[in-house]
Amino acid sequence: MMRLSLGRDGRLPPSLAMGTVDVAFHLAARGRPVPLVIAFAFDGGAPTLDSVRARVAERAHRIPALHYRIARERRRFRRVDRIAADRHVHEAWLPDDTDGSAAGRLMLARPMNADDRPPWDVWLVHGPEGRHTLCYRTDHTFQDGMGAAYTARALLGDDPGGGPVPQPRRLPTAAGLAGTLGDVVGAFGAAKAKPAFDGVCTGRVDVCHADTSLARLRAIGRAHGATVTDVYLAALSHTVRTWHLKQTGAVHPPLPVAIPMSVRAPGEERVPGNHMITARIQLPCDEESPRRALARVVAAMNVLRAGRRRDSMRVLLAATPRSVGARVGVRLVHGRVVAGPVSSVNFGAALVHQGLTARRTAAFASGASGIRSVVTLTCQHDTACLTVVHDEALRTADELPDLWLAALLELERG
Question: 0.90 exceeded by the pTM?
Answer without folding.
Answer: yes
